[in-house]
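Pasting as-is:
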Amino acid sequence: MDKNKIKDVFQSLLSWIFLGILIGIPIGLASAVFLYSLDFVTEWRETNLWIIIFLPVIGLLISFIYSTIGKESDPGTNRILMEYFLPHKALPVLMAPLILITTLLTHLVGGSAGREGTALQMGAAIADRFHCLGEKFHQNRSLFILAGMGAGFASLFNTPWAGAIFAIEIVRRNGINWLAVIPSLITSFSAYFTCLLTKAPHTHYNPISSIDLGIENIAYLTGAAVLFGLTALLYIKTHHLFSWSAKLIIPNKIWRPFYGGIVLCIVFISIGNSRYMGLGIPTIMESFEEQLHFSDFILKLLLTAFTLSIGFKGGEVTPLFFMGATLGSALTIFVPLPLAFMAAVGFLAVFAGATKTFLACSVMGIELFGWEAFPYFLVSCLIAQMFSGKNGIYDNLNNSVGLLRI
């Protein structure tokens, strides 16, 4: 290799060690604030379930916030991806605080939503504040956005390797950006360790044992992986159907979450418990210990798709974990594989199918459940992705402008 190229690579590496640490620290702190706040509002809601009667009011408040001071931030992850592929102007300063506040409001009143959308938006928006250093260090602005997304994911889910890979995979339709690997890893680990030092309330899972490598077990696992992929496809199609229907029935965007909130409130009262509200972490943990019913994944799928399609804020990843883990648990009625193993595979595979990030999901399996079952995680995630349709939840998020058809 030419000496000048070696020098350039070395300088770029040193630059990103500095930049990655500099960017990762505030992202890790933001994730810690979010995790502590989310933990607080969830516990408060669980002891004050009457708060769900305010679903329509909070929905209206969220739509009002984004229709007034948050217009530029409203597209959310869509806006971030557009800026990554077609850099135009800095991400809005208000993007991070607005998504943090509105996600907490959604969870406070019981909206069935996740948190990864919040992590991606906060991470990208914070990282983009440092893009002014790009020219000084001869770094592309797109790398800042990608590294920020990975760092947000890594610090929120306590998975630094998966976070870095996840960010690279969701923008891979233009080909893998190999230049982003080192920046993404450094920034993700910086954010991860920062969040870890705050002792933020992450969810921890027990290690998962492997299974015997036999033809019968492989056949069962393959069939289950296909079902996990079809579940991801069902979620994507349901979300699109609900979004289309909501726009048709309630053309006024501001009032859409108000009327949708009324429907959600009625449904939750009819169910009679908080099982499908918010993240659903207790039910996810339960799926590793006892066989659950198929109604769990179906209801979570419908309620999450509805909550997000009518305008409430949050993410989809943790609800996807819920759908996959509960489905995997329920399938043990027919599949003679260990309960915890099936819940873990479903947890990862439905996520992989919906996001088209099988590698990140497989690596996440190592970080959450240990190395032993990694080959099965990898195969299951790949199969689920193959059977989950062409597009994922991050594809074609804004077809009207056609910017994300890549």
